[in-house]
Amino acid sequence: MVAGTVVSDAAVTPVVVVGNAPMERDAVTRLLGAAHKPGAVTVGVDGGAKQLLALGILPNVVTGDFDSLSEGDLNYLGASGATIVPTPDQNYTDFDKALSWVRETYPDPVIAVFGATGGRLDHSYSVLSAIIKHGVSGGADICLVDATGETRPVRGGELLIQSDDLPGRVLSLLAFGVVRRLTLTGVRWTLTGETIAPGVRDGTLNEIVGHEVCLHCEPGAPLLVQVHHAPLLRGR
User: Fold this and answer.
1) Which of 94, 157, 192, 194 has its CA 20 to 30 A from that of 219?
2) Same domain, residue pair 134 and 37
3) Which residues lie below 8 Å from residue 98, measured CB to CB, with a gap of 6+?
4) Do 128 and 191 reside in the same domain of the chain?
5) What is the distance between the alpha carbons of residues 44 and 53, in angstroms, rounded to a whole number?
6) Per-residue confidence of the chain (236 residues) as pLDDT tens digits?
């Protein structure tokens, strides 16, 4: 198994946060790559710790209210070297509390999230809400990886996405409130100084046409950007 110690450092720390939702093969492949990066810290959110163990990875940290882990599971994880961080506060979800712990422990983390969505709609909503809270309001660098693609918060009103395989991929804007002064380039249907909001106008299912997508909007806008996986990865 792959394991490591938890060491807080002033440098940027790659943190892999894993929940208990099912993951497709592509997401698992990406998770393994992220977890094996030099200096990466793996955080199992409650039952997500067992997902990591099933992949041969001993999580550095296990956090949550532990309603999905038995006492035997926790004893094994602790004896194997994982740091156990109980977060029993029921006013917040385990995922929200895990992000709070990561941000309090590491000064400038780059957070990749796996196994967090799928199944119940209210659960997926709470995950996206937590990313708005920590990524937009808190300014953390967060990327949510799931069967659809990658979803990122728009921090500081700006987001630049660059990759050679972007053309042909689908991009969606997920607004959690009113987003004003929105400009979007690099897509088939560009926007210039527009406003989107739930129940008014959305920005889903656009097509990327260039190797660079540039987005600007008012700072602090509650906006997530989802880029679907490249066409060659669909259906795997």
Assistant:
1) 94
2) yes
3) 17, 43, 45, 63, 64, 87
4) no
5) 9
6) 444 334 444 468 999 999 999 998 889 999 999 999 999 999 999 999 999 999 999 999 999 999 999 999 999 999 999 999 999 888 999 999 999 999 999 988 999 999 999 778 999 999 999 999 999 999 999 999 998 899 999 999 999 999 999 999 999 999 999 999 999 999 999 999 999 999 999 999 999 999 999 999 999 999 999 999 876 434 33
Burial group, residue 11, by CB count within 10 angstroms (0-12, 13-18, 19+): exposed
Angle at 18 between CA 82 and CA 149, to 5 degrees: 155
Residues 92 and 198 in one domain: no
Rounded to a whole number of angstroms, the distance between the first and last alpha carbons of the chain is 26
One domain for residues 140 and 173: no
Structure tokens at 206: 């656009």
Of the candidates 178, 177, 182, 179, the one whose C-alpha atom is nearest the C-alpha of residue 193 is 182
d(CA 53, CA 206): 38
Axis crossing angle, helix 121-131 with helix 94-105, rounded to the nearest 10 = 20
Residues 132 and 165 in one domain: no
What tokens were used for 145?
A: 């990886």
Is 219 within the bounds of a domain? yes
